[in-house]
Amino acid sequence: MDANAIFTRVKEHTPKILGSEGFSKFAVLIPLVEKDDGINVLFEVRSHSLKRQPGEICFPGGRLDDQDQTEQDAAIRETTEELGINRTDISEVHPLDYLVSPFGMIVYPYAGFLGRTDHIEPNPSEVEEVFMVPLKFFMETEPEIHRVNMGIEPEENFPYELIVGGRNYNWRSGKIDEYFYTYENKVIWGLTAKIISHFTAIIQDV
C-alpha cells in the first residue's frame, strides 16, 4: 500500500469512539409535559418483572434496533411503545450530550415534548407506573453525588510477562459519580439522574 492509498483511507474515515462497534447502544427521551403548574418531566418506574433494574426509575428508551435509522428514531420508537402513544404525540425532539458508560454502553439522550398525556397506557411488561416531577424541582435542587470506586482485576491467564512491572504493574483505578434526587417518595438516581442534571444545566439560563 502506498502513501496516497493510506491518505485516502484516512481522509474518508469518519471518526467515532474507538471500539464503539462493540458497545451496546441505547437511546432515551426526557418527556416534557406542559401543565398548569408549569413544565413537568415524566418518568417511568420499570416493571418488577424485568430482569434488568426492576423497579428502578428511568426515562422511556431502550436499545437501538436494526429498524432504527438514527438514535433519535430509537428514542421516539421506545417512547411510543412503552407509553402506548403515537409518534404524532411527540414534538420538538432534540439531542443532548451522549454518555459513554465504563461498562461498554453508549446512551444517546434526547429531550422532547409530549402533546398530551390523558391517553397514556403504559406497557405493563416494561412499565410499572409513570409519574411527573415539576421541572422547577430540578432547576432548584442540586443532586446528591456519591462516588463508587472501581478496581482492576485482570483475568487469570493475563500475560503479565509481556508488560513492564509484571504482576506489580501500577494499574489505574477509577471512580464513578452517582447522582441522586429524592422527590417525595421517589428516588431518581444513576444515569437517569445524571441525564436530568445535564439537561438542567443546559437550560439553566433560559
From TrEMBL:
What stretch or stretches form a coiled coil here?
A: none
Q: Which domain of life is it from?
A: Bacteria
Gene3D superfamilies xrefs: Nucleoside Triphosphate Pyrophosphohydrolase (3.90.79.10)
A Pfam family name for this chain? NUDIX
Q: Which cofactor does it need?
A: Mn(2+); Mg(2+)
Describe the location of the Nudix hydrolase domain by residue ranges: 23-156
Give the matching InterPro entries: CoAse, NUDIX_hydrolase-like_dom_sf, NUDIX_hydrolase_dom
A single MF term (Gene Ontology):
metal ion binding
Q: Where are the transmembrane segments?
A: none
The alphabetical list of record keywords is:
Hydrolase, Magnesium, Manganese, Metal-binding
Protein name, entry field: 8-oxo-dGTP pyrophosphatase MutT, NUDIX family
Q: Which organism is it from?
A: Virgibacillus salinus
